[in-house]
Amino acid sequence: MIFMSLSSESFTPQDPDFESRVRASFNRQAAMQTIGATLASVAPGMAEIHLPYDGRLTQQNGYLHAGIVTMIVDSACGYAALTLAPAGVNVLTVEYKANFMAPAQGETFVATGRVLKAGKTLTVCQGEVRALTGGSATAVAAMLATIMILRPP
Amino acid sequence: MIFMSLSSESFTPQDPDFESRVRASFNRQAAMQTIGATLASVAPGMAEIHLPYDGRLTQQNGYLHAGIVTMIVDSACGYAALTLAPAGVNVLTVEYKANFMAPAQGETFVATGRVLKAGKTLTVCQGEVRALTGGSATAVAAMLATIMILRPP
Amino acid sequence: MIFMSLSSESFTPQDPDFESRVRASFNRQAAMQTIGATLASVAPGMAEIHLPYDGRLTQQNGYLHAGIVTMIVDSACGYAALTLAPAGVNVLTVEYKANFMAPAQGETFVATGRVLKAGKTLTVCQGEVRALTGGSATAVAAMLATIMILRPP
Amino acid sequence: MIFMSLSSESFTPQDPDFESRVRASFNRQAAMQTIGATLASVAPGMAEIHLPYDGRLTQQNGYLHAGIVTMIVDSACGYAALTLAPAGVNVLTVEYKANFMAPAQGETFVATGRVLKAGKTLTVCQGEVRALTGGSATAVAAMLATIMILRPP
User: Are B30 and A8 in contact (CB under 8 A)?
Assistant: First the structure.
């Protein structure tokens, strides 16, 4: 299965400096460094996070823990939303829902977040996680998330 | 806010040895040890996981990452379901949804999973995470989760 | 199974006239009248909607359609949120998730919405639907919903 | 915004007679007839339902009620799953989550359900609702749903 975006809309960022802003925030997420995740790419309305398999992050059967899968796709969705937000704001996850479609086994996990609807206060994102092994990819999880744009008081 | 169960039903486990079975599975979850989570209590239809605050597990503002909050309450829900399952089965998270109600700041995080409906194939659980600081507790997250009971082939 | 609130917090409404405000809004929901739903009770942080079984509202097996079950508990959650909002605002459903735990068969369906966390912009609610037949009640659905408080511009 | 599928996988139905089976089930959903919804198209892994605007189905501001929006996309997801199921089975909605991205105003509402992952017991679907007015379409809602395949005992 190869995922495509639910949305074909092209987005224009309000802040031309969106990528460095997103990368700076990602670098402050200690949790991402602790698990070994990296911010692979950033584009208007999109962010992609990579995580190599790590035996320290597994559930009882040796697969990546669903919470870890969720963590990288949550961050991907949050940063997808941040790419379209004005400078100086913060983003916060209001809620999300994730479906787990296959055991999280593979060499590398690729989490992609994409904006479906960018609002003034709330942004809706779609996320997905694929497990890569050799040349093949398996869809592991799908997410639908609501992100809040927090303007400084 | 002090949470109470959405359900007042009392459950009778099918396997009297449910607690040792749940604890053995928890001990195989490397991810729980990596983040420092412990299985504080297990009862029919209920499991509680504790996690001390750890600066390595934070998002960009120094709060516990939403993915980590999700991880402990996901495990609590999965083990709540496992307490009521017959011996010899495995549990798998089908999907969940979490709402984040307050920044995850505190000394200790307490995740509780409770069974709402135990089915033959699917079990529905309700979860919650509270942040404890000194003597006070704050509701941080609420979850609704679907867990699958996997019988050996 | 008898449901209890996930939250034991008692709420103080900002607008003492909350009940008439909620009832006036409910009466403007044509969809509620079309399906035959009534607003049975309103209290601070809580609303309850009743719907008698109606063969016109069924899915392919003669049970109440999941969408109808969702409709009454969505409205119950929205009005639970509205009880705690200031006068003059409107509420809007941002998103929800529902689990269906038993076939929706019964004489009357009782949907209850309760506020878990009332925020300035977003309110998180928990909902449930029970099917009543004779003297017995069956839990049919559970919901977790995010409601937005819309202040006039 | 024009939606595209999250999945580009092409599905091969197990039952060549899937369309007549899906249409027969749709025709037994009294709720669909009551609200005026029609099954516009069916394809392997996909179903599309149309609903004209109807003032009897509105919430307090005159928009289509979120529960009605949910109802048509829930049915679209269920029937998308049914297209890929073997003959003689029934489908049941386990749970879903919907995000509402714009007020449901328009002349016609188009709900599309697509299979993301077809499993033996559970099928994961993605849904969307667009509101059509004149020649333009607005994304109104997105859904992620879990459908259970019920084999006869």
Answer: no
Q: Does B85 touch chain A (CB under 8 A)?
A: no
Could D100 and C90 be called an inter-chain contact, meaning their C-beta atoms sit closer than 8 Å?
no
Per-domain boundaries in chain A: 18-150
Q: CB distance B66–A93 less than 8 Å? A: yes
Alpha helices in D15-143 (DSSP H): 18-27, 30-35, 66-83
Structure tokens at C52: 């008698």
Tens-digit pLDDT string for chain B (153 aa): 334 445 556 899 999 999 999 999 999 999 999 999 999 999 999 999 999 999 999 998 899 999 999 999 999 999 999 999 999 999 999 999 999 999 999 999 999 999 999 999 999 999 999 999 998 999 999 999 999 999 887
Question: Best mutation site among D65, D68, D129, D140 for testing chain C: the one with the most C CBs within 10 Å?
Answer: D65
Q: Does C2 touch chain B (CB under 8 A)?
A: yes
Residue C6 identity (one-letter amino acid): L
A150 and C CB contact within 8 Å = no
Q: Which two tokens stand for residue A19?
A: 């990528």
Residue A2 predicted with pLDDT over 50? no
pLDDT in tens, B45-59: 999 999 999 999 999
Partner chains of B (3+ C-beta pairs under 8 Å) = A, C, D
Say what the pTM is: 0.94
CA of B64: how far to CAs of A30, A50, B104, B105, D65, in Å? 9, 20, 5, 7, 37
Q: Which residues 96-125 on chain D approach chain A with CB closer than 8 angstroms?
A: 97, 99, 101-102, 116-117, 119, 124
B66 touches chain A (CB under 8 A): yes
Q: Which listed CATH number (3.90.120.10, 1.10.10.60, 3.10.129.10, 3.55.30.10) goes with C18-150? A: 3.10.129.10
